[in-house]
Write a structure and sequence with these properties.
Elements: E1 2-7, E2 16-21, E3 30-40, H1 42-48, E4 67-75, E5 87-91, E6 100-104, E7 108-110, H2 117-120, H3 123-136, E8 144-148, H4 153-164, E9 168-172, H5 178-183, E10 186-189, H6 195-202, E11 209-212, H7 219-226, E12 232-234, E13 246-247, H8 256-268, E14 276-281, H9 285-293, E15 300-304
Parallel strand pairs: 8-9, 8-11, 9-10, 11-12, 12-13, 14-15
Antiparallel strand pairs: 1-2, 3-4, 3-6, 3-15, 4-5, 5-7
Bound molecules: NADP nicotinamide-adenine-dinucleotide phosphate (NAP).
Amino acid sequence: MSLAVRFSEYGTTDVLRVVDVPAPVPGPGQVRLVVRAAGVNPFDWKVMQGFMRQMMPLDLPAGLGSDVAGVVDEVGEGVTAFAVGDEVLGASLTPGYAQSALADAGALVAKPAGLSWDVAGTLAGSGGTAWTVIELLKVIQGETLLIHAASGGVGTFAAQLAVARGARVIGTASPDNHERLRALGVTPVAHSEGLADRVRAIAPDGVDAVLDASGHGEIPMSIDLAGGPERVLTLLAFDAADLGIQVHTDGPRGNTVRALHDILALIEEGRLQVPVWRTFPLTEAAAALDLSRTGHVGGKIVLLP
Ligand SMILES: NC(=O)c1ccc[n+]([C@@H]2O[C@H](COP(=O)([O-])OP(=O)(O)OC[C@H]3O[C@@H](n4cnc5c(N)ncnc54)[C@H](OP(=O)(O)O)[C@@H]3O)[C@@H](O)[C@H]2O)c1
């Protein structure tokens, strides 16, 4: 048996229970992990509250989380890439807010020995999504990228991936997060009223591309700043597809392992930092999700089962 976070009805965090469940058994191509860290993402509380139920109907009771790092303790048939005792990170198949989770061996990479567990548990979801959207936006050296919500999980990875490509990044954030963004090579701007003017003051000719990880009505302004919709991509404004922008709905979109290799290489070279803001034990998953639900974060939130 192992502990896992479960909910039997949709709702806010009072629906969560930490219960003892049988450890899952890996099928062909799968491994089982003793979860050492599970990243907390806004997607998780959106699932819990039922906001994703049309796109992703669940059989309740259900669990949460898919960003994991841990130690392999059982391998399924046909798995040759990993063995019992290996330290790995990536995307889980079964809920990651648990002491034990299954993953496809093809969605995992080896955890470098020097990488902390808390950072390892954050890389697949936000990092994988950021990597994928920077590819889709085709950001190249010398370009200017505007990121709405650069201080968030996705924004922090995307900003650093773009800076690593030689782009200039202007990133929106609350003033409390500006110093943190400057340290990552980002030019911060407040996301309050007058944002477009503040961006124009930094980039008088506009920007080359825009990543919207905020969803607070920035699309018309972004199309204007980018001189057209083609290189504006949103993770949230699903009703804006008619405007000709790119609407991205599926996170890392199958790129998890490629993304993780690139991200780990940048971390190793000292060119990408992962600010972990708060860690919580599994039993305090509700507090972790409540913090994420505030929408204002100072870095990644991680559960340490
Ligand atoms: N479609 C997809 O495939 C996909 C994939 C991943 C994530 N997402 C979504 O993308 C969003 C961002 O994810 P995340 O992990 O980066 O979230 P996060 O870590 O919780 O960060 C939230 C961000 O929103 C910013 N923010 C809060 N209020 C704002 C406002 N009024 N105007 C502008 N920005 C504001 C915050 O900035 P300050 O704290 O500095 O104010 C912070 O940067 C979430 O809604 C998530 O569900 C979608």
